[in-house]
Design a protein that fits this description.
The complex is a heterodimer of chains A (about 110) and B (about 110). By secondary structure, chain A is mainly beta. Chain A is built from no helices and 11 strands. Chain A has strands at about 5, 10-15, 20-25, 30-40, 40-50, 55, 65-70, 75-80, 85-95, 100, 105-110. In chain A, strands 2, 4, 5, 6, 9, 10 and 11 form a 7-stranded mixed sheet that branches. A 4-stranded antiparallel sheet of chain A has the order 1-3-8-7, with no helix packed on it. Chain A is globular, with a radius of gyration of 13 Å. The model of chain A has no long low-confidence stretch (mean pLDDT about 95). With about 110 residues, chain B is mostly beta strands. Chain B is about 0% helix and about 60% strand. In chain B, strands 2, 4, 5, 9, 10 and 11 form a 6-stranded mixed sheet that branches. A 5-stranded antiparallel sheet of chain B has the order 1-3-8-7-6, with no helix packed on it. The N and C termini of chain B lie far apart (about 40 Å). The model of chain B has no long low-confidence stretch (mean pLDDT about 95). The chains are: A mainly beta (about 110), B mainly beta (about 110). Chains A and B meet through strand 5 and strand 10 of A and strand 4, strand 5 and strand 9 of B.
């Protein structure tokens, strides 16, 4: 089925550990996004990629890095996890008509 | 903060009633979109309204946009228990790649 696939769905880390969240879309969309969702805060943009080979910071980029490996894949890396990064992370791509298409989310807990 | 605002934060109604949610945003926009999120799932696009449109319908959904007041409303008519979810507005500014999400309205439709 066409869509945005995120892995892992759940992860528990200890403070200081690193990990990478993977995202892949098979809809041939150019732009991809990483958001985090916290209670009462809506979604906040971490990084986005307008096209293969380009990435830009969003509203809350500190503590994160990204890689746009190819047109399909956009990964988010936490180099040294902190409890403040406990959140639900969503990857999305944007359709030509302008709508965001989201993955199911990755739920991260940092102890 | 770039965040938009939504009200009410939570809304509880009986099946068959109408539900109205409001959204305000801060900058000039290209379009405004509404998304739905079921508990534990990703966001799903519902409807997009462009800055030169005032009203749009899709099935039981009616969206209005008032650019002079920087506000939008989502009306769900004849609500069903299956409409129980969180609803988010997302404004797309004229410039840049970001979408600005509101904190969401939690709708509960009681059978």
């Amino acid at each position: 089925n066409a869509g945005v696939t995120q892995t892992p769905k759940f992860q528990v880390l200890k403070t200081g550990q690193s990990m990478t969240l993977q995202c892949a879309q098979d809809m041939n969309h150019n732009s991809m996004y990483w958001y985090r969702q916290d209670p009462g805060m809506g979604l906040r943009l971490i990084y986005y990629s307008a096209s293969e080979g380009t990435t830009d910071k969003g509203e809350v980029p500190n503590g994160y890095n990204v890689s746009r490996l190819n047109k399909r894949e956009f990964s988010l890396r936490l180099e040294s996890a902190a409890p403040s990064q406990t959140s639900v992370y969503f990857c999305a791509s944007i359709r030509p008509a302008g709508e965001l298409f989201f993955g199911e989310g990755s739920r991260l807990t940092v102890l | 903060s770039q965040q938009g605002e939504e009200d009410p934060q939570a809304l509880s109604i009986q099946e068959g009633e109408n539900a109205t949610m409001n959204c305000s945003y801060k900058t000039s926009i290209n379009n405004l979109q509404w998304y739905r999120q079921n508990s534990g799932r990703g966001l799903v696009h519902l409807i997009l309204i462009r800055s030169n449109e005032r009203e749009k319908h899709s099935g039981r959904l009616r969206v209005t946009l008032d650019t002079s007041k920087k506000s939008s409303s989502l009306l769900i008519t004849a609500s069903r228990a299956a409409d129980t979810a969180s609803y988010f507005c997302a404004s797309r500014p004229n410039y840049g790649q970001n979408f600005v999400f509101g904190p969401g309205t939690r709708l509960s439709v009681l059978p």
